[in-house]
């Protein structure tokens, strides 16, 4: 540890500066947690009371394993809480969104402006025939219009399915089809490191054989404007301009779906995780306010894209429901230089910064001189999400970015959980390597295969024992896959992560217990990468594993059996990489490809990835009794 900062190392833990607690929403974690245990429903009702409802609930929770309903018969609209409420409470001219483009161009949008744009686009969607319950796919770069489109859907009760703009056309196609999206909202292009990346051409490919799609709404950012040809293409700004300026929020039942968001599973195609209006709103509002300690006066910068759950919950719905200012940017962390993010923190007075370990590790490599060029005193809270924050990265983040003053929240959660589940509340002792303890409202534990808690220091499976408001309600069109989450270990929700608990109840996440890869904080199914590879004409069979990578968490290695008539070559490797890139997008590209004659399989034909992985890492492959000859 550096001596320059007031860092107190209490055994394994860091005690944050006591001044942090002077104004924190949670004053004492243990009190908050015990209050919840005494009256679990009262805990959630108190939070829900802080939000606006058109009609209050009859019951806080109805639980019939594995199906939960929260705030039954309550009526609300999340956009009312994110927009109208602030507009009518004197915050009309408060800044809602600061956007910075890849080229440094800025846009500042007040709550009033956002409210207006959302209503106009909502009316635009209505004019295209979108009604409550229809699915709208949003495939856009990180521009304010992406958020406007999401909120406009929520305004009228349409279910948005945001697909990250970095995904390729096959990934987009399967998500459009699975959700049976009626509309796709997109843009001509994204801009990355000064280069134009076409999105619309990928949409054109993705909608082939997707007859559910009736219209494609295109935001034209480039000049000269891209021509819109067919009858089904409409201009984003045109539908904004034509319409009425007012759009009353649709009265939504607490349990009506708000959105679908796809996440990778161990097998099969991506799962459409379904979140609802009431419970998700309460969960993201609660954790933004009480965990990230967000105040209206904060400028929150969550560096994710709204195309991931992190963006849904902690760019859009959580911070806007609290009434904070959000910063979003299309800029990459190291372009034009590795100081760009720190310069933005200084320039826009960012107070709450939330990023991923992979980004922190990248900055560590670039050297401390980059952040040291800027005044980062504005920072109050630092967060991390997506994969374990290793102690070295924790220490660097704490010392170099937080100057030993800012609490670091390593937040463990999932697309399926909707909100933070495990972290270290502001002002509590932090233990590097440990995410922390369950959020008040959550009962989490580390158990063995039979659901029995394992003693401290022993690894086990991470489970959640009781339902919570922002839990997913189903997997779209595949409720069986939903039920599996609640039936793998006893009656608990199984997260699919391995973890270990210490004597104080702090939980360290060890990684996935299945074949899901976490590449740069993004969850990627080995099955998805394999099927992209197998769709190439040269590939007979493919198996994909994650290899520990100092920067990305996992890096992808693919083992390939070629079809007869094809020869292994470096050129073919490049072809395969390109093929995966076009199909799934750049994040799913294998860093290594090895051509093999055979793959280890069980007698029933299932590829044993764990054997490949053990061989690759020089480890013991474990029980091989099911391995075929
Ligand atoms: C998986 C969920 C939640 C938003 C980002 C990813 C891993 C997430 C942490 C953390 C260790 C983490 C888990 C989890 N993960 N946060 N703080 N420490 N691991 O969402 O794509 O649904 O992935 O990400 O393995 O199960 P997701």
The unreliable regions are: 1-11
Tell me the fraction of residues in β-strands, as a range: 25-35%
Count of helical segments? 18
Rg estimate, integer Å: 24 Å
Q: Looking at the structure, what is the overall shape?
A: globular
InterPro entries: Ac_CoA_lig, ACAS_N, AMP-bd_C, AMP-bd_C_sf, AMP-binding_CS, AMP-dep_synth/lig_dom, ANL_N_sf
Pfam family, one: AMP-binding
EC number: 6.2.1.1
Protein name: Acetate--CoA ligase
Explain what this protein looks like in three dimensions.
With 629 residues, the chain is of the alpha/beta class. Among the domains are: 78-250, Rossmann fold, CATH 3.40.50; 520-617, ANL, C-terminal domain (GMP Synthetase, Chain A, domain 3), CATH 3.30.300.30. It contains 18 helices and 34 strands. The chain has an eight-stranded mixed β-sheet with strand order 14-13-10-8-9-16-17-27, with helices on both faces. β1 (8-10) and β2 form a beta hairpin. The chain binds 5'-O-[(S)-butoxy(hydroxy)phosphoryl]adenosine. Residues 29-82 form the Acetyl-coenzyme A synthetase N-terminal domain. Belongs to the ATP-dependent AMP-binding enzyme family. This is Acetate--CoA ligase. Keywords: ATP-binding, Ligase, Nucleotide-binding. Residues 528-606 form the AMP-binding enzyme C-terminal domain.
